[in-house]
Amino acid sequence: MKKIRLFNIKVFILSGFVLFGMASCSQQPAKETETDGETEESTAPEGLRPVSLTNQQFEALSIKTDTLAQFGFKDVVVANGNLNVPPQNKASVTAIIGANIASINVFEGDKVKKGQVLAYLNHPDLIDVQTEYINARNQLEFMEKEYKRQQKLYKEQVSSGKTYQKTRADYYTLKADVLNLEAKLKLLSLSPSKIKEGKVYEKVPVLSPIDGYVEKVEVMTGQFVEPQKPMFQIINNDHVHADLMVFEKDVYKVKVGQKIIFTVESLPGEPMTATIFAVGKSFEQNPKAVHVHANIDNKRGMLIPGMYIVGRISTKNEFVDALPEKAVVGNGGDSYIFISKKTDDGWLFTPLKVITGQKEGGWTEIKLLSPIGSGTKVAWNAAYYLLSEMKKSETGDDD
Description:
CATH architecture of the largest domain: Beta Barrel
Helix content: 25-40%
Distance between the termini: 71 Å
CATH class of the largest domain: Mainly Beta
C-alpha cells in the first residue's frame, strides 16, 4: 500500500510540473502576438516600407495629395454641362459714339482692374461734343443771369409775365442741354469740370467696367467702330461654377443643397466637389433639360468658363470614403493606398492596407481596416509608381 501511495504522489508531482510548463509556454506566445499587433498598427505592412521622394520627383510625377473623398455610389443623377460664371461677372465693352481706335493697351488673357484703360479712341466728333459743352456752359451762365434779372423785374412788376416765362423756359431748356452733355462726357470717361476750365481731350479712354481677364479683343488699331459695337469681352473667373443640364426625367430628384462630384474634361484625374445653389425653373429645348448651378467647393487648376464637365449628383447625400482608381494598387492579393507626409527635404509615403468596395466612374470605395485622422492626407494618384519604388527599395536593402 505504501508503494502504491508513493507512486501516486510522484505521478501527481510530475503532472504538476508538466501543467506548469504548458501554462508558461502558452503565456509567452500571447505576449509576442500582442507586440506584433502593436507593430502592425504603427508600421507599414510586412515587405512594404515607406518610400521617400524628393520635391523634384514629387513635382515630376504630378502627385496629388488630399484627404479621403466622399463619393455617392447609389441614388445618383449623371449630368453633363460646362463651367460658367454669373452674368454680373461678364462684360461687353462697347463704343458710346462712333470713333476710331487710336491705340489698344491690352492683349487677350491680360488681367485687368475695374477702371483700367483698355484702349483710346479719337475722332472729330469727340472734340465737337467737348466744344459743344463749353459753349452750352457759357450760354447757361449768361442765361442764368438773365433769368434772375427777369425774375426780379417780374416781382417788381416792371417786366411782363410773358417775357419772364420765356426767359425761364429758355434757361431750364439750356440747363437740361448742359446736364445732358455732362452725362455724355462722363460716359466717355471725360471730366466735365476740367473741360469747363478749357481742357479739350484729343482722345478718350475705353475703361474696363469690372475686374477680370480680357477674353476677346474684337478691334484693331485705326478701325472705325460704330456706336454699341463690342470692342472687348471681359470675364471674371472668381465665381466660376458648375452649370449642369439635368434631363426632364431626373429633374424631380434634384434639389438645392445636394452634393455633386464632377470632373473637367481637360483636367482628367482631378475630381472636384460642388454644392447645388440653384435649380432652373424652365426647360431648354435642345436638349430638353434644366440648368442646375453649383458652387465649387475645392477649386483646383485653371478653371475657365466653357470647359466641358461631367457630374454625379447624389440625390440622397449618402457618401462613403473613396479615392480615384489611380490612388489604389494591388499587391499579393491585397489593396493599398498611401498616406502622404511632407518632410523637410521632400515627401514620405507609407502604404496602408485597405479593402476596396464599389467602383464607378473612375472612383473606388475605400474601407479602412483601422481609423485614420480626419485631416490625414493620402496620394490621389501614382499608386503603382509608389509601389514600384518601394519594391526597388526592398531589393536594394536585401543586396
